[in-house]
Write a structure and sequence with these properties.
Layout: H1 2-20, H2 33-39, E1 49-53, E2 61-67, E3 72-79, E4 85-90, H3 100-103, E5 107-110, E6 114-119, E7 124-132, E8 138-147, E9 150-156, E10 159-164, E11 167-171, H4 190-203, E12 208-209, E13 212-214, E14 223-225, H5 237-240, E15 243-245, E16 250-256, E17 259-267, E18 270-276, E19 292-296, E20 300-302, E21 314-316, E22 321-328, E23 334-341, E24 344-351, E25 355-357, H6 363-369, E26 371-378, E27 385-388, E28 393-397, E29 405-412, E30 428-433, E31 438-445, E32 451-454, E33 457-459, E34 461-466, E35 469-475, H7 506-511
Parallel strand pairs: 12-22
Antiparallel strand pairs: 1-2, 2-3, 3-4, 5-6, 6-7, 7-8, 8-9, 9-10, 10-11, 13-16, 14-15, 16-17, 17-18, 19-22, 19-25, 20-21, 22-23, 23-24, 26-27, 26-35, 27-28, 28-29, 29-30, 30-31, 31-34, 32-33, 34-35
Length: 516
């Protein structure tokens, strides 16, 4: 009888352990299915466990946040029809353990076409939709987001509407899970979007950091010191000991002489951008760096790790002077800049929503452009008709007499040696549209009515310049809609002012069928 009692106690204990412990010691992550199979193949996650998941054994996708003492990582796994397993790993998509008291715990909810990531304690949610490209690779696109009172809605392939109350702005980008950054979303509302749009436009899309993966050497490995800038007197991370081994894989972005801008992995939760004297990799690629003055608009930070930890290498107060150099290939979250921190040259990444151009206004050049204009020749990258008013408002359209686009405009100095697509002696015209989009072009204008349209008839001329060419304008009224020159009974040009209507604003026009 006593033996039977002991046996029952032992059986109860075993059942209790079976319920409370993971199925096997190898599955300390509390994971199942294809994600379990993936993490079992590496020691990277030995100290991690599953924080939250939408695992369903009948579903082909799993979305999980793995957590350790210092690190959270979102993992999205998709098993496509041929059984090939595809995964996306992101640290920047989720808040980190150090932020738990502020953000609270996350929730992941499976949806019909994807999943929703939410932080209920701070009223944030992000909805992603699953797709596959032509090669079968998995990607998730951000479709909707809510951050308190700020709402984000995808309304075009490369366009989101961001609203806060009655204010709204178009955010001209496409955000996938791989480049999603939860910290740098436009949480202040449309004004964040306007700054992001202008920074992207002003630094120009060729000024991007595109990586080339360099495989580690199996023999002849060497260690090289890594600095913040291509200068041994610049800041050096890791308490002055940052270094990279050529035995490890790294990403190569730029070369300047024997200096290379690289990104390399320090650990699963940290990577680093920096410059190392690795020798020549071929032609220098300094053309991909611009030099444009900017300012921090808010108290913000600089990091040398925009893609993983986003560790604050330096805190920058509002009004800090920066030189913008480039931006990563995801383009919207960060700007690559140079600053002086504690007396040392320091390069790194600053949130794009937190910076503005340190522009010098040129009122005399602006006065030369006041008036009504119509396109004459060149690439059609801007409106056929423009009206630039002296009060800083502009109206433009492809339709004569109907002006749905409008906003404000100004002329600013193009920084000398900026490496932009027009020379420093050519001013920059800035169009800030009411829908939040921003355009910056080089601009040239005739000093007087010295452009000969037809024999003996002269008018003013203006040209807008981009990296792809230019567009020429003449005074409005020179040409009719059919392209013919309009003159009076004496053969003289009939110059006039472009009529303005407020029947349709830019955003409403853009959203109407056929205008997108």
């Amino acid at each position: 009888m006593e033996n039977m009692k002991k046996l029952r106690i032992l059986l109860i204990l075993c059942l209790t352990l079976a319920v409370t412990l993971p199925a096997a010691s190898a599955n300390s992550w509390n994971l199942n299915g294809q994600l379990l199979a993936m993490v079992e193949q590496t020691h990277d996650y030995d100290e991690y466990t599953g924080l939250v998941s939408d695992y369903n054994r009948k579903a082909a996708t799993t979305h999980t946040i793995l957590t350790s003492r210092y690190h959270n990582q979102l993992v999205a796994v998709d098993e496509v029809k041929d059984g090939w397993k595809d995964a996306i790993f992101s640290t920047t998509a989720v808040y980190q353990p150090s932020e738990l008291e502020e953000t609270g715990y996350p929730k992941i909810t499976r949806t019909k076409n994807g999943f929703e990531l939410a932080y209920p304690d701070i009223d944030e949610r992000y909805y992603f939709e699953l797709s596959h490209n032509n090669e079968g690779r998995t990607f998730y696109t951000l479709m909707e987001a809510q951050m308190g009172d700020v709402k984000v809605e995808r309304i075009a392939s490369y366009g989101y509407r961001v609203t806060l109350g009655e204010d709204s702005a178009m955010w001209m980008t496409k955000i996938t899970l791989e480049d999603f950054n939860i910290h740098n979303m436009p949480k202040r509302g449309p004004d964040d979007v306007r700054r992001i749009n202008e920074a992207s436009e002003g630094l120009q899309y060729f000024a991007c950091l595109y990586p080339e993966v360099v495989s580690g050497q199996k023999s002849g490995k060497k260690s090289y010191a890594v600095y913040s800038a291509p200068d041994t007197s610049s800041y050096r991370a890791a308490k002055g000991k940052a270094s990279v081994s050529t035995g490890d894989d790294y990403k190569l972005y730029l070369t300047v002489g024997d200096w290379s801008l690289i990104e390399y992995r320090v650990s699963l939760r940290t990577s680093r951008f920096g410059w190392a004297q690795l020798g020549k990799h071929g032609d220098a690629t300094t053309d991909e760096i611009v030099h444009v003055p900017m300012l921090t608009a808010f108290d913000t930070y600089l990091t040398d790790d925009p893609n993983v930890s986003e560790y604050h290498q330096a805190e920058l107060p509002a009004g800090t002077k920066l030189t913008a150099l480039s931006h990563p290939d995801n383009q919207w979250a960060y700007v690559y800049v140079e600053a002086t921190v504690d007396g040392k040259i320091t390069r790194g990444f600053v949130p794009q929503r937190d910076v503005v151009f340190d522009d010098v206004e040129l009122p005399d050049e602006e006065a030369k452009l006041v008036g009504s204009w119509q396109m004459e020749a060149g690439g059609e990258f801007w409106d056929n008709y423009l009206r630039l008013d002296a009060d800083g408002k502009f109206y433009g359209s492809d339709c004569d007499g109907t002006q749905p686009y409008h906003g404000t405009w100004s002329v600013v100095q193009t920084p000398a040696d900026s490496n932009l697509y027009w020379r420093g002696d050519i001013p920059t015209i800035v169009f800030r549209c009411v829908n939040g989009t921003v355009y910056r072009y080089g601009v040239g204008v005739s000093e007087s009515a010295d452009y000969e349209v037809t024999e003996g008839d002269y008018c003013r001329s203006m040209s807008l310049i981009t990296c792809e060419g230019g567009t020429g304008y003449v005074s409005y009224g020179v040409y009719g809609e059919g392209g013919g020159i309009i003159t009076d009974e004496n053969g003289k040009l009939i110059l006039k002012e472009l009529n303005v209507t407020n029947e349709l604003n830019w955003g409403e026009y853009w959203e109407e069928e056929g205008n997108g």
